[in-house]
Structure formats: structure tokens, C-alpha cells
Design goal:
This protein is an alpha+beta fold. The protein has four helices and eight strands. It folds into two domains: 240 residues, Pleckstrin-homology domain (PH domain)/Phosphotyrosine-binding domain (PTB) (PH-domain like, Roll); 42 residues. Strands 1, 2, 3, 4, 5, 6, 7 and 8 form an eight-stranded antiparallel beta sheet that branches. This is Homer protein homolog 2.
């Protein structure tokens, strides 16, 4: 039996699958989201209960909705046609911040743990605050619904107890005619009401048993989820250690990369040196070929060296003869110079003698002139 349409709708949404359930939930709510943000969605690995499994390849929209028909709050996230999160918030749920940008909560009905990775710590704080607000609102809604159920149950019990007593009082105080006139319709009405109350009590008892079973299931799920959270916390510590190890390994690899880059630069320098050496070797080989060519020429020239030697000896002999002739000529030149000096000396002596002779001659000529004049005078006188 479906009460107020809630059970039938839930069963129908479960038959439709998670996509239909979430889409139907949003369609039934007909409300704008209370709060919306974007985050990377993860779910705990159901087999290991330790590792996180990404539910989306990129950041998706995560929203809080209020379900008016069920008087409940939900967190819903859809990636295209795939429903990632369809979690009904209950008062016993807890949102835990495991890092500056990551938080998680356990959903006992879905029997899983959801994780959200945000782009900033501020977004995580806003989501956690909104989770706490919605959690308190869900608690108030649950308390109100519980009060309504208890009130209706008490009212039904009181009405069921009071109706027979009033009937007895009327039957005692009434006359036989009144009994005859009123007992038929009143009995029918009371029986119908009693039947309705019995059905309501039966349904209430069945609902209580169902709620007790569901409560026990929730407790067991909470125990499992608490264990999963503890294991998750332990795995977080392990991940932190692994992260530290990976960071150290990353630093070591970076240092290794720096060393390899330095080695690569050294190798490049060595390559440049090798290129220069190859160029130098090519130049030396070219010079060596030139020297070999010169050596061949010299070898060819060495073949005519004996002839050149004989010619050189002949030239040397001629040179020696020329030197001897030159020596003789030099001796002759020296003797000629001596003769010239002597002739110059004799010439100077002759000049002196000639000068003295000319002076004597001039004196003699003057004497002759005087003598001639004297003769002339003598001739004139005579």
C-alpha cells in the first residue's frame, strides 16, 4: 500500500534508474537550487574502501535542492546524462574537510562516500557551511514530521477509546425506543470508524517496524561508513606519506634533470669542441697534403741534386779562380795605387821644382830684359 504517494513515487524512481530518479526528483521539486557550486566529484572505491574513484573528468555543477513533496534536502550533481550525486541529507550526516580544498560525506542510503575537490578553500568553506545549514533544516523537518506522526497516532488511539464509552453511556441513559431508533445507524458508523482506526493502527505499527528496520539498517550502514571514514582517514595519512615520498622523489628527479641538463650542456660544449677539432683536423690534413705535395716536389728536385752539386763544384772552382784573379787584380790595383801615389809625389815635386825653375827663369828673363835694355842704352849712347 502506498501512503500519500511517497512510497509509490520512490519505488517508481528506483525502477527508472539513477538518471530517472535524479531527473524525476528535480522535476518533482520544481524549485531553484538553494546553493550551487562547481567541484570535481569522487566516490570511494566500493571494493577497497580506501581509494578515491573520479566520478567526473572535469569540474561539474553541484547543487543543494529542497524536495517539497518529501520535505527533505538533497545534493544533486549531473554530468551530461549521467547522475553523479543524488544524496538525501539526513541529520546524522557529517561533512568532513580532509584538506584545504577537499571534503567528504558518507551517504548510508547510497552505501558510499562522496568526495568533492574544489578550486579554492573559500568554495570548500561555503559548501561546508551550507551543508551544516541544510543538515539543521533537515533535522527540524524530521522533528516536525515525527511530531505530526505522534500527534495523529495519539489522536487515533484516543478517538478509538472514547467512542465505545460514549456509545455505552447513550445506551444506558436512553430508553428502549431510543435504542430501537438509534442503535442501527450509530453501530454502522462506529464500526466503520473502528475499522479505519484499526487499519491506521496496523499501518502505523507496520511503519514503526519498517522504521525500526530502516533505523537498524542505517545504524549498520553508519557503522560501516564510520569504519570506511576511519579507513579513509588512515588512507589520507598514507596518501600524505606517499605524497611526501613522491614530492621527495620529484625533487630528486628535478635535481637529476638539472644534472642531466648540465651534462647535456657539457655534451653540447664537447660537441662544439669536437666540431672545432674536426675542422682543425681537416685543416691539418689539407696542410699535410700540401706538405706531401711539396715533399714530392722536393724528392723530384733531389734527383737533380748530384748534377747541381757538380755544377756547384764547377761554379765553386770558377769562383775560386775568380777570387784568385780578383786577388791578383787587387794586388795590381794596390801596386798601381802605389805607383800613382809615387807619380803624384813626383808630380808635386816636379811642380815645386818647375815653380822654382820658373821663378829662376823669370828672374833670368828679367835680368835679360835688364841686360837688353842696358845693351839698348849702350847702343843708343854709342
Amino acid at each position: 500500500m502506498c501512503r500519500a504517494g511517497g512510497g509509490c513515487k520512490r519505488a517508481e524512481s528506483e525502477r527508472k534508474g539513477p538518471v530517472g530518479a535524479a531527473a524525476g526528483a528535480v522535476q518533482e521539486m520544481g524549485e531553484q537550487p538553494i546553493f550551487t557550486t562547481r567541484a570535481h566529484v569522487f566516490q570511494i572505491d566500493p571494493s577497497t574502501k580506501k581509494n578515491w574513484v573520479p566520478a567526473s573528468k572535469q569540474a561539474v555543477t553541484v547543487s543543494y535542492f529542497y524536495d517539497v513533496t518529501r520535505n527533505s534536502y538533497r545534493i544533486i550533481s549531473v554530468d551530461g546524462a549521467k547522475v553523479i550525486i543524488n544524496s538525501t541529507i539526513t541529520p546524522n550526516m557529517t561533512f568532513t574537510k580532509t584538506s584545504q580544498k577537499f571534503g567528504q560525506w558518507a551517504d548510508s542510503r547510497a552505501n558510499t562516500v562522496f568526495g568533492l575537490g574544489f578550486s579554492s578553500e573559500q568554495q570548500l568553506t561555503k559548501f561546508a557551511d551550507k551543508f551544516q545549514e541544510v543538515k539543521e533544516a533537515a533535522k527540524l523537518a524530521k522533528d516536525k514530521s515525527q511530531e505530526k506522526i505522534e500527534t495523529s497516532s495519539n489522536h487515533s488511539q484516543e478517538s478509538g477509546c472514547e467512542t465505545p464509552s460514549s456509545t455505552q453511556a447513550s445506551s444506558v441513559n436512553g430508553t428502549d425506543d431510543e435504542k430501537a431508533s438509534h442503535v442501527g445507524p450509530a453501530d454502522t458508523h462506529l464500526k466503520s470508524e473502528n475499522d479505519k482506526l484499526k487499519i491506521a493502527l496496523t499501518q502505523s505499527a507496520a511503519n514503526v517496524k519498517k522504521w525500526e528496520i530502516e533505523l537498524q539498517t542505517l545504524r549498520e550502514s553508519n557503522a560501516r561508513l564510520t569504519t570506511a571514514l576511519q579507513e579513509s582517514a588512515a588512507s589520507v595519512e598514507q596518501w600524505k606519506k606517499q605524497f611526501s615520498i613522491c614530492r621527495d622523489e620529484n625533487d630528486r628527479l628535478r635535481n637529476k634533470i638539472d644534472e642531466l641538463e648540465e651534462q647535456c650542456s657539457e655534451i653540447n660544449r664537447e660537441k662544439e669542441k669536437n666540431t672545432q677539432l674536426k675542422r682543425r683536423i681537416e685543416e691539418l690534413e689539407s696542410e699535410l697534403r700540401e706538405k706531401e705535395t711539396e715533399l714530392k716536389d722536393l724528392r723530384k728536385q733531389s734527383e737533380i741534386i748530384p748534377q747541381l752539386m757538380s755544377e756547384c763544384e764547377y761554379v765553386s772552382e770558377k769562383l775560386e779562380a775568380a777570387e784568385r784573379d780578383n786577388q791578383n787584380l787587387e794586388d795590381k790595383v794596390r801596386s798601381l795605387k802605389t805607383d800613382i801615389e809615387e807619380s803624384k809625389y813626383r808630380q808635386r815635386h816636379l811642380k815645386v821644382e818647375l815653380k822654382s825653375f820658373l821663378e829662376v827663369l823669370d828672374g833670368k828673363i828679367d835680368d835679360l830684359h835688364d841686360f837688353r835694355r842696358g845693351l839698348s842704352k849702350l847702343g843708343t849712347d854709342n
